[in-house]
Design goal:
The chain is an alpha/beta fold. It is 50% helix and 15% strand. The protein has one domain (3-129): Rossmann fold (3-Layer(aba) Sandwich). It has helices at residues 13-22, 24-27, 36-45, 60-69, 89-102, 110-122, 126-133, and strands at residues 3-8, 31-34, 50-52, 75-79, 106-107. The longest helix has 14 residues, at 89-102. Bound molecules: 1,3-dihydroxyacetonephosphate. It catalyses: dihydroxyacetone phosphate = methylglyoxal + phosphate. Its EC number is 4.2.3.3. Belongs to the methylglyoxal synthase family.
Length: 137
């Protein structure tokens, strides 16, 4: 089962909710995670069940980062706000760095998110199942 995380900064939350609503079917068989407020907003508008972590500024990005460090996540959709400074910028940078360490597909804008989700729907993420299967203990 694919494991996916959703994160959106405040001014990107509507875009995230609209996107997930449009592609809800594609996410229904995955194990889903999110930061606190993003997850609440998505669950209000969809039937998806999401395991929510802390809100981003309170450590949610770091909690998702811990899953990335263990190579547990297969896809991250992280709609960042490029025009607003965040108090927890170091956490955001750390999360994206860990995605690069593990080679995890991560979308930071809606155009990339759409391409990755379409690719996931086609089955292009099968290699991630192998990552899980052969992960060292
Ligand atoms: O700040 C965030 C990610 O950096 C998102 O956190 P929330 O989903 O709790 O708003």
């Amino acid at each position: 089962m694919l494991q996916i995380a959703f994160i959106a900064h405040d001014r990107k939350k509507d875009e995230m909710v609209n996107f997930i609503t449009a592609y809800e079917e594609a996410f229904k068989d995955a194990k889903l995670y999110s930061t606190g407020t993003t997850g609440s907003r998505i669950m209000e508008k969809t039937n998806l069940n999401i395991q929510r972590f802390m809100s981003g500024p309170l450590g949610g990005d770091q909690q998702i980062g811990a899953l990335v460090a263990e190579n547990e996540l297969d896809l991250i959709i992280f709609l960042r706000d490029p025009l607003m400074a965040q108090p927890h910028e170091p956490d955001i940078t750390a999360l994206l760095r860990l995605c690069d360490v593990q080679g995890i597909p991560v979308a930071t804008n809606i155009a990339t998110a759409e391409l990755l989700v379409k690719s996931m729907m086609r089955g292009d993420f099968a290699w991630r199942e192998l990552v899980h299967k052969y992960k060292p203990e």
